Amino acid sequence: MEDKANSNTENSRRNFIKTTALAAAGFMIVPRHVLGGQGFLAPSDRLQLAGIGAGGKGEGDIASIVRGGKTDVAFLCDVDDRRAANSLKNFPKAKYYKDYRELLDKEGKNIDAVTVSTPDHTHAQIAMAAMQLGKHVYVQKPLTHDIYEARMLTEAANRYKVVTQMGNQGASGDGVRRLQEWYDAGRIGKVHTVYCWTNRPVWPQGISWPTAKEAVPKELDWDLWLGSAPYKDYINKLVPFNWRGWWDYGTGAIGDMGCHLVEPPFRVLALDTPISVECSVGSVYVDEFKRAYLPESCPPSSHVIMTFAKTPKTRHEVQVHWMDGGIKPERPEELGANESFGDNGVLFIGTKGKMICETYGKNPRLLPLSRNESDKTKITIPRIVNQEEGHYTQFAEAAIAGYGKMQLSSPFEIAGPLTETLLIANLAIRGTDVQRRDAAGKISYPGRDIKMLWDKVNMKVTNFDEVNQFVKREYRKGWTLGV
Fold first, then answer.
1. Is-contact 308 316, C-beta < 8 A?
2. Distance CA 12, CA 29 (A)
3. What is the topology classification, in CATH, of domain 43-170?
4. Phi, psi at 432, each rounded to 5°
5. Burial class of residue 230, CB neighbours in 10 A (0-12, 13-18, 19+)
6. Is 112 exposed, middle or buried (0-12, 13-18, 19+ CB in 10 A)?
7. What is the topology classification, in CATH, of domain 172-382+411-470?
8. What is the mean pLDDT of residues 35-43?
């Protein structure tokens, strides 16, 4: 029987879906002078923000929140001075730290909200530390590196009564809302199959860890960058981008793009985490008939089939196919020979038709495309002002209003289960490299040809125990999630 915490999480997720139509309306009309409670700032106050991870995507996240006009960047934090340089130039009044723990310890009383835009393996520890101080958090996708971390952050958001948002900005776009309106209006019947595909990875995967020991750049605190991950010597080109292809730090192509591509079917069909996953992965051969064994690196390509239990919106099980590394599903027959299928996209197949979209749910289309010319489906779901850019403004407004006063597009009660879904898919991918030796020492790979059955309540695969080691990783000594 499902425990109370999981039941509360599921109920809140369902309430989120049911009240999607109210979200934008509430965002537009609730006056701040009538709001109060924990985390409330007076109308004359501005949101005092700490940006942890100040370069790259972090630089963009911080700038986007500030563009809403109600936020001051009070603090910046980054383990790499090179990456932080632009943000420090843009916000010269911000006090700078390298270690987020020192920042939160010394400045906690001066912070209202925190952005977390760091490598995947550090998201959970930073976000949890901030939430435990009562700080609102905006966390880049994927929410966490591990399934256990995703579950803990989802529960913590409710426990600590803080405003949360994951950085999958397409959740605030018009596209996914149009897809939902079409589905709710019965334009394609009941969906039974969804395909999501991407040209990622666009970084090296399926490779061996370099053996050459390189000098650590003087601007980078390598030990802080590693954080909870096992200690390894610094290698060139891992920072700032290519860490995505290594399991110690990243979550592969599905971690990078799944929150943008799996989010539309997750929302439109009101899906929960999958009940089973199975996959095949691209192989790397180092000699004739000699397949490389590269358990540290994500594979160059993969195809994962996730099966979801029926919901009131689907009425039967749904299969969601994830394809990366340039693999695509069969081209829909309704799509003309010269009509673009796209490098990244989502295809919904229903009992009465099909619909398609791009990354972030953009460019939604009914198939065949001629159907769109005569479509008169009514707009029933209010839109978020400025769509993807409004994703950031929405977070700042909600943080100023206080916990529970406004609905957001991707709070942890939905971002957590979505992230869990992607990481459950990664169990199947990582399971293909799990070795088993028999009494004679012969190696086999039993995870390559099975369907893994997922137990949501107990967070484990029930028919292949070896893969459960990836549900909750062991942190390096001195690092903790704090739960």
1. no
2. 22
3. Rossmann fold (3.40.50)
4. -70, -15
5. exposed
6. buried
7. Dihydrodipicolinate Reductase; domain 2 (3.30.360)
8. 47
pLDDT in tens, 403-431: 999 999 999 999 999 999 999 999 999 99
Burial 177-207 (b: 16+ CB within 10 A, else e): bbbbbbbeeebbebbebbbbbbebbebebbb
Strand spans (E) along 110-197: 113-116, 136-139, 164-166, 191-197
Q: Closest by alpha carbon to 263, among 202, 198, 331? A: 198
Q: What is the pTM of this model?
A: 0.91
* Cα 97 from Cα 104, distance rounded (Å): 10
Sheet holding 302-308, edge to edge: 365-367, 354-357, 345-350, 191-197, 318-324, 302-308, 276-281, 452-455, 460-461
Task: Retrieve residue 225's tokens.
Answer: 């960058």
Q: Where are the domains of the chain?
A: 43-170, 172-382+411-470
What percentage of the chain has pLDDT greater than the value 90? 89
Residue 95 bridge partners (DSSP): 75
Token digits for 397?
Answer: 């407004």
